[in-house]
Amino acid sequence: MDFLSADSLPWLQSAQTRMRAALAAQRLPHSLLVLSTPGLGAEQLASWITALALCECRGVRPCGVCASCQLLRSDCHPDSHVVRLEEDAQQIKVDQVRDLIDSLSLKSYRGGFKVAVIEGAESLNANGANAFLKTLEEPTANTVLIMIARPNHRLPATIASRCLRMTLSPPPTEVAMAWLKQRAEAHPTAGGAAGFPQARSWDAALALAGGAPLRALELDAASVAALDSDMRESLQQLGAGSVDVTLLAERWIKSNPGLRIAWLENWITRRVHEWTTAGNSHQSAEPVRLPAALLKAKIRALFELLDAARELRRFASTGMNQQLALEAFLLGGRTALAN
Ligand SMILES: [Zn+2]
Predict the structure, then answer these.
(1) Average pLDDT for residues 159-174, to the nearest whole number?
(2) What is the value of pTM for the model shown?
(3) Distance from Cα 250 to the centre of ligand 1, integer Å
(4) Which of 3, 33, 129, 307 is a good FRET partner for 23, with 20 to 30 A between their CA atoms?
């Protein structure tokens, strides 16, 4: 368990400070629900909180060197349990939850806390969630349960309401950019074989990653560029009416739908910005001047499109028919997207 890496993610610092204070006051929560989109380091934070609870040092915790920290670092601490989706599984299995509950009902091996982390808690099915509920309702002493879920999770309210909530948000762009640049300098091969030699590429990757720095780090420069040109071309074809909307939606759903929707959101946001500045600036010759009424209508259409794109992103994780939603978006936004 790599809990030390949380210290290198500056946007987690306030959460860490809060948990340290809770531990010092002997008020570490029994159950914590960390809400986070992927790429913000929620897993690293959960590992760090595990270490905070289990570290046996008297000084600043987690120390990283005591017996307990060493056991954690080699993934063999008997009081630390992690449950996540097994490979190729759609749901966390009830057996996984039962095993966890059994382990938590035992005494702590090392005499301190027992900590369980459930990654991707929204993948618990109804049976798993029910089995888990009793553990939440009657927590055993010195037990810390940490669940990680997306902000739009559909966990039963009976579960969510029993947890202390902690929401991770993307850091301000300057913080994320500074962190990415530092990472790129420290690890020149980070971000795929091509690396990210230019600051501009980081911009694009960070925007596509919805501001999540760890996700941006995973996107390599070549695929960001390829996606960008593919999307521009698609919009041109859409405007010219030379592409079948159903086929286009089908193709997007098949390859990187999440990134494509993020790209659309960024693109529309930039257009809104361009047209708003065009309306305010008297010297501006580009883009082409429009009469005020037309300009207003255009900006309004773009804002509506932006709302629709955000709605589309929310759809993406609900299992609703994405293909239909995307088709409706493309048909409805055709005019505004084209020019
Ligand atoms: Zn320690």
Answers:
(1) 93
(2) 0.76
(3) 51
(4) 129
